[in-house]
Amino acid sequence: MIADGLKLDVYFGESLTVGGRLAGDVLMDCFEDHGVRAAALYRGIEGFGIGARIRTERFADLSSDLPLIAEAIDTREAIEAVLADVDAIVRQGLVTLEHSLLAVGDDVRGARIPDGVGAGARLTVYCGRGERAGRRSSHRAVVDLMRRRGAGGATVLLGVDGMYHGRRRRTGLLRHNADVPTAVIAVGPPRVLQEVATALPEVLAEPIANLERIAIVKHGGERLEPLPVIADVEGEDPPVWVAVRIYTRQSAHVHGGALYTTLTRRLRDAGAAGVTTVRGEWGFSGDEVPFGDRFGTLRSHVPTYTVFVERPSTLALIWPVVDEITAEHGVVTAALVPAYRERARGVEHGRLAIPSREDVLRLARRTSDPGR
Hints:
Layout: E1 2-13, E2 17-18, E3 21-22, H1 23-34, E4 38-48, E5 55-56, E6 67-75, H2 76-89, E7 93-104, E8 120-128, E9 132-133, E10 136-137, H3 138-149, E11 153-158, E12 161-164, E13 167-170, E14 181-188, H4 190-199, E15 208-219, E16 222-223, E17 229-230, E18 241-249, E19 253-254, E20 257-258, H5 259-270, E21 275-279, E22 282-285, E23 303-310, H6 312-325, E24 331-337, E25 339-344, E26 347-351, H7 357-363, E27 367-368
Antiparallel strand pairs: 1-6, 1-7, 2-3, 4-5, 4-6, 4-12, 4-21, 7-15, 7-25, 8-14, 8-15, 9-10, 11-14, 11-22, 12-13, 15-16, 15-24, 17-27, 18-23, 18-24, 19-20, 21-23, 25-26
Helix pairs in contact: 1-2, 5-6
C-alpha cells in the first residue's frame, strides 16, 4: 500500500490524567480502538511546555512530570477518524499534524518522497523492538542500510507502548516486548532515502515507512539550506507552524553543558512555547560509525532527538539561539506543520483543521530566511 498519510504528534506531561487514568494509556487505548497502523509512546528526558517549567530526569525533584511524545501514522482518512477522540483526551498539551506519504510492505519499493518545502527528506521506518534481520536486531540492520546508502544521519527511538501493524504492543516486566514499536528516523537527500525505501524489504519482512519532505537546515554547523518561514500576523493563528528538530548525541556539549540541556534553557529564556528531548538507542551522523552507549566510557554516546514547534514569527526571533547552540554539532531540520493546537490552564492556541498539501505548498512560496 502507498497512500497519502498524516503524522500525528502529541506532546504532554506523563502525570496528565483523564478520568483517573494516565493520558498516555488512554491515548494508546484510543489508537488501539481505531486500529491505527503504527503508533509509539516515547518518554522524554527533558523539556518544558506552556508553563515554562523545565522537567528533567537529571534531578529527582524535577523529574516527577517528564515530557512524553505520542506519535501515530496512518492514511489521512484513518488519522482524521481518530482526531476528535485525541483532541478530547489532550486537554493540556500540544497536538500537531504533518503531511506525509505512507508505504507498507513490498510496496515501499515504489515510494517516492512527496512534494513539500525544503530540499531534504525524512524517512521513518517502524519495526518491532525484538524483530531480527539475520543475527542483528532489525532496527540496527535498518540503520546500517541507511548509512551504506548515504543518509545524512539516523536515530533509533524505542517506544514504551504503541501500535505495530494495527496491534497493540507495550513494555512490561511480565510481557513479551519483541513487537513494541521502534522508530528509525533518517534524514538526507530525497534520492538517497528513496533508495533506502526500495531496499527495505530486503531487511524487514513487512516494513512500515513514513516519508516526508523537509528542509535540512544545518549539519555539523554548516548551513545547507534556508530555514522555511512563512509570514504571519501577530494576534492571529498563523497559516502554518514550523517544527524544528535537532539530532545530536548526549555527549555533545556546548557552553559547559549537554547541547540539549543548554538549548532547552536558552529556548525557554527566549520565549519558546516548549521543547522536548528524547534519548535514542542507536544512530549515526555523516560518515561516522553508528554509536550508542559503550562499556568503559564516562559519557553517554547515545543519540538525542529534540523537537519544538513554533509560529513562524516567533521562530524568526529565537532562531539565532538555535543557530548558536548548533554551531558545531548536530543535524537541524525544519518542516511545515499545517495543524496545531495547544492547550494549558485555560489558554488555547491554534486549530486542528487540516489544509491540503497543495494549499500548504502555495503558502510556502512566501518563504524567507531570518538567519541570513
